[in-house]
Amino acid sequence: ISDMGTVGEGIEKIHGYxxxxxxxxxxxxxxxxxxxxxxxxxxxxxxxxxTPSLFRVEPKCAFAxxxxxxxxxxxxxxxxxxFKHNKVKNNLIRIGGFDASFLEGIMEEPVGMDVPFFYRNxxxxxxxxxxxxxxxxxxFAGRTHSIIANTDCALGTVENKVILExxx
Length: 168
Description:
Blueprint: E1 3-4, E2 10-14, E3 17-22, E4 29-37, E5 41-51, H1 77-94, H2 100-106, E6 127-129, E7 135-140, E8 147-149, H3 158-167
Parallel strand pairs: 3-5
Antiparallel strand pairs: 1-2, 2-3, 4-5, 6-7, 7-8
């Protein structure tokens, strides 16, 4: 995997054909199954990690693979900051029309957090029912409306957890 996409998926190009592979990290060598093919690109499912990345870390969240909010947790925090810096820079070039050399002169490195967990810029807590008919809350699984039951995630504050558990 040579690059990362805008939502944290791994990217690799094979003979000019681009593959977007969910849960793949820069530096992986993988086996992947193409799930949806287009003329110039495809979405693939990670089947097997042949060689792990030097930037791979074990996600702290048990739901990191299934949740729609923890796409980068399998990558070291330092590499996450680098990815986010490059994402902003590339968007300023591609969308904003800025010259790369101009940005090199003015962009600063991202300021990381001491503890980069247990926060969200935005959170919505959908409520629904599990298979047994119990009321649950948590987060939507990536690109679905399926709720991953979880009140112990990066909810931001203890108060959020207390409120959600009281409602349940």
